[in-house]
Amino acid sequence: MSTLLEMRNIVKCFGQVTALDGINLTLQEGEILSLCGENGSGKSTLMKVLCGIYPVGEYEGEIFFAGKPVKAKNIKDTEKFGIAIIHQELTLVKELSILENLFLGAEISHYGVLDFTAMFHRTQQMLKQVKLDVSPDTRVGDLGVGQQQLVEIAKALSKNARLLVLDEPTAPLTESETEILLNLVKALRNKGVSCIYISHKLSEVKAISDHICIIRDGKHIGTREASTMTTDDIIAMMVGREMKQLFPREEHLIGDTILKVGSVHAWDKANSKIKKVDDASFYLRKGEILGISGLVGSGRTELMECLYGSYQGKSSIQIELNGKTIRINSSQEALQYGIAMVPEDRKRHGIIPIMSVGQNMTLSGLEDFTTIGVISTPKEAHMIQDLIDKLQVKTPNAEIAIRNLSGGNQQKAILARFLMVNPDILILDEPTRGIDVGAKYEIYKLMFTLVKNGISIIMVSSELPEVLGISDRVLVMHEGKIKGNLNNKDLTQEIIMDCALSEGVVA
């Protein structure tokens, strides 16, 4: 097996901040190398250097691909070498067909005339290679997220990629879609295509990797054979300390019922004949962490949006808060009643990327710093710094744009925003998606601190270990209905999954 890629002593700085500090990375032909590290460790920066997003001259060090020096000025230069990166946010044009996406900017033509027959057959070949049984004429926007991911890979392979860089490829995928993707990556390895795989899901990393490379704070900590490493080994190298448990569960008092939600119905936003939530009812107690589990599409998020007053489709709901019947028609009204919600998609619905960390934190509580329409800047700055310290948000300063923070620190900033309004009930929808184990641990610790102070938490999560590790009680949803209300005592993943797939109701 010969060496395909060498990155030697890579240094990348942003002003006075050193993001990459002399990193070395080696990849063999037909190898899957997983790149692991906490958010902000430098993984994405290193891959941007590799793929020409940061061009030669903007970093120090050397890159060799198949023995030849790489001095890329842009991403097209690295594509000529056979290096392709597939980002977590897909870059496909959803209004175009699969064929049009694959050949966008690289059309096959003869004497100025497009050869649609050749492109159609080539697209068929690529789709067959990624085991996607759809027509090349299919509009990309009509595909599921998992299928779109496969189209991205097909697009890379159509450019004769010898190295695929996959950045959090399974974050939005279901378990079955994830299995298809992992099997595809293994099949491509057997055909000589190498892969650098970035994921916070360590079970995937263990299952798919030949070697695992760990970086921390911009430094190369070590590269080892995957078969010799346990999950605990990976975590210890990532965070620089031994973590005896992933879920720092703490005892806390659970009080009386403070919220009763009944007869929730919600219809699909695009098709009013489809029900997303079907006569769901539940209750929440003071100081309780209520987990909501179920397969993707089971209605979990829609149920929470109905409670929060943010669901955009037709819906109906009955809410009793502290013994009084109330109506919530908007998120602003929910906040007034002491109910806050951190959304699932923080990039689309949680943060305003161009605004500063501090401005994102205080968005929901500006009235606290305003007198006769004028914001008291010193008072606001004091609160921002207090929240940064309290939640341990890693940021050079409060003025930096929030888009420059890691996913985990963006999530902490959003949490800070809603904690400013002192909620009685906090809804967290997929609170640790795309976040590394170290940041997850800190968020879990914060959750237990909040419930100890009497705040009640509803947590929607697709990760069963998280549901079991954090929740006091678990609601399980299936096709819009609540199928189970389970105390988290001797509860297992198998029990939850049986309930999630069951036609009956589990008490």
Q: Can you describe what's shown?
A:
The chain is α/β, with parallel strands linked by helices and 507 residues long. The chain is 33% helix and 27% strand. It contains 17 helices and 24 strands. It has a six-stranded mixed sheet, with helices on both faces. It has a six-stranded mixed sheet with strand order 18-21-22-15-23-24, with helices on both faces. Strands 2-1-4-5 form a four-stranded antiparallel sheet, with helices on one face. α4 (116-129) crosses α5. The radius of gyration is 24 Å and the shape is globular. The model has no long low-confidence stretch (mean pLDDT 87).
What is the distance, rounded to the nearest whole angstrom, between the alpha carbons of the first and last residues?
A: 56 Å
In terms of per-residue confidence, which ranges show pLDDT below 50 for 5 or more consecutive residues? Answer: none
Q: Helix count, per DSSP?
A: 17
The main sheet comes to: 6 strands, mixed
- The coarse overall form would be globular
Strand content: 25-35%
Using brief descriptors, characterize the structure shown.
507 residues; alpha/beta; six-stranded mixed beta sheet; 17 helices
Provide the fold topology:
Blueprint: E1 3-14, E2 17-28, E3 32-36, H1 43-50, E4 60-65, E5 68-69, H2 75-81, E6 83-86, H3 98-102, E7 109-110, E8 113-114, H4 116-129, H5 145-158, E9 163-167, H6 175-190, E10 194-198, H7 202-208, E11 211-216, E12 219-225, H8 231-239, E13 257-267, E14 275-285, E15 289-294, H9 300-308, E16 315-321, E17 324-326, H10 331-336, E18 339-342, H11 346-350, H12 357-362, E19 370-371, E20 374-375, H13 377-391, H14 407-419, E21 425-429, H15 437-452, E22 456-460, H16 464-470, E23 473-478, E24 481-487, H17 493-500
Helix pairs in contact: 4-5
